[in-house]
Specification:
By secondary structure, the chain is mainly β. It is built from one helix and 15 strands; from the N terminus they run βββββββαββββββββ. Strands 1, 3, 4, 7, 8, 9, 10, 11, 12, 13, 14 and 15 form a twelve-stranded mixed beta sheet that branches. It has a three-stranded antiparallel beta sheet with strand order 2-5-6, with no helix packed on it. Strand 8 and strand 9 form a beta hairpin. The relative contact order is 0.24. The model has no long low-confidence stretch (mean pLDDT about 90).
Length: about 210
């Protein structure tokens, strides 16, 4: 059975460990060929890790709860487009795994997730190379946000752009963690009671025909 077509609508909480990192510390091999590193405020860029814990409702795309983990090495650009790059992603739901590959061309891997506390996740996978944990502990609310994030992805000679929109209450947090080694200033953020829309990708640059 094929996964549903985008847009996908998810509900739950999403934790972000945003790493404000020196532009020079981004390894070139983490940036797909044909994309360029882009700055965020001076000589820095944004890196980070993503944790998602989703629950089904009457209007969500899936009727099964599942989890995701992703690593974002930097902001990148292609022509006039700018967005985040996903280096790797783990998920524990087959439809989300296959849908990510089919619709957004993201090479997701199977992961094992264990919830703990109110907003904590332990993640393992990738034949033992992935083993991390984090628990988001709310400090104060930053209000209700409806925020689109743009991503860029390259597969072969094709470049895609897609948006992910978060709509929920945003909290600044403490975030005790293991297995994660940030290289800059870390800002732990939590979108709680959040609606997440994954929009269909747009082809920016198609391979030329021979």
């Amino acid at each position: 059975m094929r996964p549903p077509e985008p847009p996908w609508l998810l509900y739950g909480w999403a934790g972000l460990l945003i790493d404000w990192i020196s532009y020079k510390k981004i390894k070139d091999q983490l940036v797909p060929k044909g994309l360029t590193k882009r700055r965020f405020l001076g000589f820095n860029t944004l890196s980070g890790h993503y944790f998602g814990c989703y629950r089904p409702t009457e209007t969500t795309t899936f009727s099964k709860p599942f989890h995701e983990f992703g690593y974002i090495p930097c902001i990148a650009g292609h022509g006039r487009s700018k967005g985040y790059v996903l280096s790797r992603m783990a998920v524990d739901f087959e439809d989300a795994l296959e849908g990510g590959r089919r619709h957004w061309r993201i090479l997701k891997v199977e992961g094992s997730f264990e919830e703990f506390g109110e907003y904590g996740l332990r993640v393992s996978g990738d034949q033992g190379r992935l083993k991390v944990s984090v628990e988001f502990k709310k400090l104060f609310s930053l209000g209700y946000w409806e925020t689109p994030f743009c991503f860029l992805n390259r597969v072969g000679e094709a470049v895609y752009r897609y948006n992910v929109t978060y709509h929920g209450e945003l909290f600044f947090c403490r975030a005790p963690r293991q297995g994660l080694n940030p290289n800059g200033w870390v800002f732990p953020l939590l979108f709680d009671r959040c609606w997440i829309t994954l929009h269909a990708p747009i082809l920016l640059d198609a391979p030329s025909k021979p």
